[in-house]
Amino acid sequence: MIRKAALPYPAPLTVRVVTHIPHHFLTPDSIPLYRENVVQIAQDSVNKLAVGGMFIVGTQDYRDDEGKLWPISMLIMEDVNRHIGEKILKLKEMVVTVPEGYAKDRSKPISFDTYEPEVCLLDIDEAQKHEIDVPIVHAIYLVFMKMGPP
User: What is the CATH number of domain 13-99+107-146?
Assistant: First the structure.
């Protein structure tokens, strides 16, 4: 397979990737344009991908200054399904990634002395919710597979 000759130009693509935009570069005003661009890239990818090819979109959720959460990954998934359709680009996987240092360390034993009680945000007053800073550090990669011709 490694010695197999490449297909002549224009050969169909097998993978097309759109990396995520870090949440600190987004604003609520730029989110609709970002979503439109991803849909346009997905529509272009349908014409260029081979059947079985992968279209991968990296997303990262966004929280504005008022605390409103914008679930970018869910919005992008809905946009692709609405404009292209699941019969053409089907979501096969959602891969969640976290940077070094944020993953749960499963090798550390938890004892009564090191246990820290969790705080439920529903039990906290509205005034205190803005004091708690919960950063969005994870990125979600949506892996779509081209199912057939458009």
Answer: 3.40.50.150
Q: Which residue has the tokens 């935009």?
A: 21
Residue of 118, 17, 129, 127 whose CA lies nearest to 63: 129
Q: Give the integer Cα–Cα distance in Å for 71 and 23.
A: 11
Task: Give Cα 99 distance to the centre of its chain.
Answer: 14
Domain layout of the chain by residue ranges: 13-99+107-146
Instruction: Indicate yes or no: pTM above 0.70.
Output: yes
Per-10-residue mean pLDDT of the chain, 150 residues long, equals 66 80 84 94 90 91 83 94 93 85 68 71 66 75 83
